[in-house]
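[step 3/7] inverse_fold.run input=structure_tokens len=122
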């Protein structure tokens, strides 16, 4: 939708393939289980996240992974219910998921760190 058009026009993402998944992520990188339509508006998405998580997101960070999927990091976010942590290694697709205690020593990059590094501010 509108976000992908903006990212493509600024050469910050490649063309979004129809049928590619969009994953909504909490601040720690855990996934919020909810389907997302690529044509869905940003304000509508924020409302749905707030309704499901009980926390009103004030910012969204959009990143395209190596597998072509879109990852949307919401902040602030609720605490995750599981004890796994997605670790991003730029050379791997799909990205591995491991226990939080193992994530520190694997050589990967936690999602909040990656988001801060890649964030493009207006």
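[step 3/7] decode complete -> sequence:
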């Amino acid at each position: 939708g509108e976000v992908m058009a903006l990212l493509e026009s600024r050469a910050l993402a490649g063309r979004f393939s129809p049928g590619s998944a969009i994953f909504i992520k909490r601040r720690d990188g855990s996934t919020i289980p909810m389907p997302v339509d690529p044509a869905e508006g940003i304000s509508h998405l924020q409302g749905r996240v707030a309704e499901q998580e009980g926390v009103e997101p004030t910012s969204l960070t959009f990143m395209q992974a190596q597998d072509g999927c879109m990852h949307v990091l919401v902040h602030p976010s609720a605490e995750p219910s599981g004890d796994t942590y997605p670790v991003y290694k730029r050379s791997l697709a799909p990205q591995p998921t491991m226990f939080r205690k193992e994530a520190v020593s694997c050589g990967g990059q936690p999602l909040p760190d990656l988001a801060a590094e890649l964030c493009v501010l207006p």
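[step 4/7] annotate
The two ends are 19 Å apart (CA to CA).
The first strand starts at residue 22 and ends at 25.
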